[in-house]
Amino acid sequence: MLIAFDSRTGNVRRFVDKLKVPSIQIEETMTIDEPFVLVTYTTGFGQVPDKVMSFLKQNHKRMRGVIASGNRNWGEGFARSADTISELYGVPVLGKFELAGTNRDVERFTQEVRAVASY
After folding, report:
1. What's one GO MF term for it (predicted)?
2. Given pLDDT bands bounded at 50, 70 and 90, which one contains residue 14?
3. What's the rounded Cα separation, in Å, for the pair 34 and 116?
């Protein structure tokens, strides 16, 4: 399954690179014509980045799940963008990770993507 992602500091890109699966960095006005899983960062105090929201306005119907990065120092705001996107678009949160994620984060996410892709 395609991974669509956005990365501000490079952490999300490093996480996605560990997955070794087809991926594309999103642009606000692009259209994706196949099912995908979104990997995004969290900004501010738990918000979804504006670029990601613009992208999802056109592409949310093909999204099958979401995972987000964050910083655990934000407590309840940690990777909250995944929760917001899940609530707005009715897709499952497939995980949350800090910085570029651990090998265990990558393994768990890969399993979750396989499960979503099998539906």
Report:
1. FMN binding
2. very high
3. 14
Cα gap 43→8, rounded to integer Å: 9
For the chain, the structural domain boundaries read 2-117
The number of beta carbons lying within 10 Å of the beta carbon of residue 95 is 22
Task: Kindly state which CATH superfamily the domain 2-117 is placed in.
Answer: Flavodoxin domain (3.40.50.360)
Where do the H-state alpha helices sit in 1-119?
Answer: 11-19, 50-59, 80-89, 103-117
Is pLDDT above 80 for 15?
A: yes
Tell me how far apart the alpha carbons of residues 99 and 3 are, in angstroms, rounded to a whole number.
18
Place of tokens 């990601």: 52
